[in-house]
Amino acid sequence: MASTMHSIKIPFFILWSVYKVSLPVRIKVSSTRSVSVTVGSDVVLPCRLIPEMNAENMKICWFKTKFQPCVHFYSDGKDDYSAQVLEFANRTELLKENITRGSFPLKIRNVTAEDSGEYYCNIDSNNHHGLAIVQLDVTAVGSLPYISSVNADTVYCESCDWLPKPYLIWADNEGNNIIPLMEKVHTNKENLYCISSIISITAAVNITCTVSNALNQSKQSSGHNKEKRLPAAPRDTCSRIIIISASVMICCVCLFLLLKKHPKYPKIPLGMYPNTAHSEKERKYSN
């Protein structure tokens, strides 16, 4: 009986070993949760197989929108750009240095704001299938805030080229926040954010304009608001009459004093006036 059981176990274990070898190895496609990069830089999105195995003969598709045209496609041992998304043309490269060890990260050059989002690393072969997801966060630190005076009591601040969406804070020289009259946020042609704000100032004060984003990236500018000049009070009709009358009186007094100090004109002999001399001769002849 024992010999019979032993004879049965030996073929069973042989068959089980052969069956295990023939089973496809269960693999996992792995990546990091997220990667951050600044606009205009290059970025590498990791992807690898666990456990390590040669991926040279697998189909590898990196795509951004799930099950849509590939950002980058690798098949039959070479890159295939025929179905690549146009936005990524000439900007992607599958790094193959360690592909035989199951590592095939994707490199994206000259990253733009539109490249932000989830990326899917999908592998496919006769025996293996898998998918991993990595989040690409594209960031940009904007320009130094520009402060200018709109008029005597209104100040304007603006900063552009931010990602993610920024926020703006006004403060006086004591650190007190100033509530803005207006604030506006919009995107430019590069899909980066611009922010602008206006405040009203009632007295001379040093002010700061700070623009920040959710990643604790910020830039700050300071400015001095000039003291407001009080507007000239309008004069009514009565006050104008008084001022004009006083001016006329002053002019008259000055003229009187000038004439009083001036010497009298000397008397001129009668003969020096031609008309008078002629009349005197006529009077003699008539006598």
TrEMBL record:
<dbReference type="GO" id="GO:0050863">
    <property type="term" value="P:regulation of T cell activation"/>
</dbReference>
<dbReference type="GO" id="GO:1903037">
    <property type="term" value="P:regulation of leukocyte cell-cell adhesion"/>
</dbReference>
<dbReference type="InterPro" id="IPR007110">
    <property type="entry name" value="Ig-like_dom"/>
</dbReference>
<feature type="domain" description="Ig-like">
    <location>
        <begin position="24"/>
        <end position="139"/>
    </location>
</feature>
<dbReference type="InterPro" id="IPR013783">
    <property type="entry name" value="Ig-like_fold"/>
</dbReference>
<keyword id="KW-0472">Membrane</keyword>
<dbReference type="Pfam" id="PF07686">
    <property type="entry name" value="V-set"/>
</dbReference>
<dbReference type="InterPro" id="IPR003599">
    <property type="entry name" value="Ig_sub"/>
</dbReference>
<dbReference type="GO" id="GO:0016020">
    <property type="term" value="C:membrane"/>
</dbReference>
<keyword id="KW-0325">Glycoprotein</keyword>
<keyword id="KW-0812">Transmembrane</keyword>
<keyword id="KW-1015">Disulfide bond</keyword>
<keyword id="KW-0732">Signal</keyword>
<dbReference type="InterPro" id="IPR013106">
    <property type="entry name" value="Ig_V-set"/>
</dbReference>
<dbReference type="GO" id="GO:0042110">
    <property type="term" value="P:T cell activation"/>
</dbReference>
<comment type="similarity">
    <text>Belongs to the SKINT family.</text>
</comment>
<protein>
    <submittedName>
        <fullName>Selection and upkeep of intraepithelial T-cells protein 2-like</fullName>
    </submittedName>
</protein>
<dbReference type="InterPro" id="IPR053896">
    <property type="entry name" value="BTN3A2-like_Ig-C"/>
</dbReference>
<dbReference type="Pfam" id="PF22705">
    <property type="entry name" value="C2-set_3"/>
</dbReference>
<dbReference type="InterPro" id="IPR050504">
    <property type="entry name" value="IgSF_BTN/MOG"/>
</dbReference>
<keyword id="KW-1133">Transmembrane helix</keyword>
<feature type="transmembrane region" description="Helical">
    <location>
        <begin position="241"/>
        <end position="259"/>
    </location>
</feature>
<dbReference type="InterPro" id="IPR036179">
    <property type="entry name" value="Ig-like_dom_sf"/>
</dbReference>
<keyword id="KW-0393">Immunoglobulin domain</keyword>
